[in-house]
Q: What sequence folds into this?
């Protein structure tokens, strides 16, 4: 089973943040976060002021994806397709944005990942369950499910999935 794209971005973001913390001192990391917070340009990252942050991301990419990132130059040389290079660059940029938004704090990235995954899982579970019930009943029109599962009902399912996520995490860390 392959890892869904949003999950891969969070995994890469955590590895990138860890790599920067490995390469930079706590004082330098604090300065990176402060400079990024003060910047009005979303395309600027102060990590470049202290290291070759692209190399840090490249190392994190290889460690989490099991291969080197595919660049446009790889398309030109015939090593990959444009689609493959575009997907890698989108993952690279998404992970960078996630890490930067979380102040390069792996725990905060993981917490945000949990929320994102729980939202996606809750929507997917409810969509599939409602589709099965509608198919069983022969329902072909209307959005009663959307109205029914807005608000508290959605939150209840999400809370159940959060408990499951925490149980899985506890089980995995016990191994």
A:
């Amino acid at each position: 089973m392959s890892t869904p794209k949003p999950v891969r971005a969070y995994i890469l973001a955590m590895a990138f943040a860890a790599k920067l913390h490995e390469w930079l001192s706590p004082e330098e990391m604090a300065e990176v976060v402060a400079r990024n917070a003060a910047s009005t340009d979303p395309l600027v990252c102060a990590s470049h002021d202290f290291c070759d942050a692209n190399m840090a991301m490249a190392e994190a990419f290889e460690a989490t994806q099991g291969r080197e990132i595919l660049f446009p130059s790889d398309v030109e040389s015939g090593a990959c397709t444009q689609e493959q290079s575009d997907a890698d660059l989108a993952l690279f940029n998404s992970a960078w944005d996630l890490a930067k938004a979380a102040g390069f704090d792996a725990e905060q990235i993981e917490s945000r990942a949990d929320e994102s995954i729980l939202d996606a899982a809750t929507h997917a579970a409810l969509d599939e369950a409602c589709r099965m019930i509608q198919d069983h009943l022969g329902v072909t029109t209307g959005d009663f499910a959307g109205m029914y599962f807005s608000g508290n009902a959605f939150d209840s399912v999400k809370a159940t999935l959060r408990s499951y996520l925490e149980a899985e995490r506890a089980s995995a860390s016990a191994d």
